[in-house]
Amino acid sequence: MEVGSVIHKEGCPKTLNNSAISKSMQAFADKLAKGKAGLKKYGRRQAEKVMQKLGAHTATNDPMVEEKVKRVAAMDADLQALYDAVSEYLVAVSVLQSSSTKVAEIFESIIETKDPRLKGATKAYVSKNRLVEKFVKDAIAQTCIETVVRPAGEKLKEIPKLKEKVNLRNQKVLDYDSYRSRLNVETAKNPESEQSMKLLNKVERARESMELITSQVTRKCLDIEDSNPHLLASAFSCFVACQEAMSSRQGEIVRPLLEELPMAAEAMCLICKQTPEEMHE
């Protein structure tokens, strides 16, 4: 089929005349003009993004700043995971202690009539376990909240403020890139033109704004990162201390009762057999 021909529905080629070709070219030009007009509707920054994605313009990159922002983003995810895990831990510990008390109370109500010999032991266990339950809610939970949950929560509140600055910096970088690209085009045509001078001033102002917000982002990232090691060390120390405190209190309750429960020896032997060898070291 010849160039400049089209296929009818019947499949027969028909050659276009010069007038038809001109109309086609004009239609294409109109579409191109509309496309450019549409691009302007996006605004200077969005238009610059499009041009950079197309490879027509070069983006300004700062690997050091981008790396700092990535590290803070990773720290944000870690802190959120820690915050959620400790919150879940506190709920689980509270439920465990409440369940322990409930089981003991059921034993007490049954044994009181079925086996009076153990009445004293069950009564003592219930009474002391209620104290441990209160201890967990008042001391353990409060310590975890003050040492882990609240500091992590306060640190997480700083992240959105940083994200706002990062977004603002991205906009300022786009401003700079847009003016710089326009300046390159203008100076290639006439470096001494009035438009070139205007664009040069805009580039310099955009550079100053970009550098100012970049320094703010960098400083904020460093502030957040510097306090993180201390927060994590304090949080982990608190967690270990709480675990030890709960274990100690539980031991203080059950250890004296074992003397009144000789059948507990069988359970202790079974527990020892089921205990992993690593825990015997």
Stretches where pLDDT is under 50 for at least 5 consecutive residues are 1-16
| Overall shape | rod-shaped
The overall strand count is: 2
Helix content: over 70%
Biggest beta-sheet profile: 2 strands, antiparallel
Query: Structural class, please?
Result: mainly alpha
Global mean pLDDT: 82
GO biological process, one term: plasma membrane tubulation
Organism: Triparma columacea
Pfam families: BAR
Main location: cytoplasm
Describe the structure.
With 281 residues, the chain is mainly alpha-helical. It is 83% helix and 2% strand. It has six helices and two strands; from the N terminus they run E-E-H-H-H-H-H-H. The chain has helices at residues 18-41, 44-53, 63-114, 119-189, 194-258, 264-274; strands at 5-7, 13-15. Strand 1 (5-7) and strand 2 form a beta hairpin. Residues 1-16 have low confidence and may be disordered.
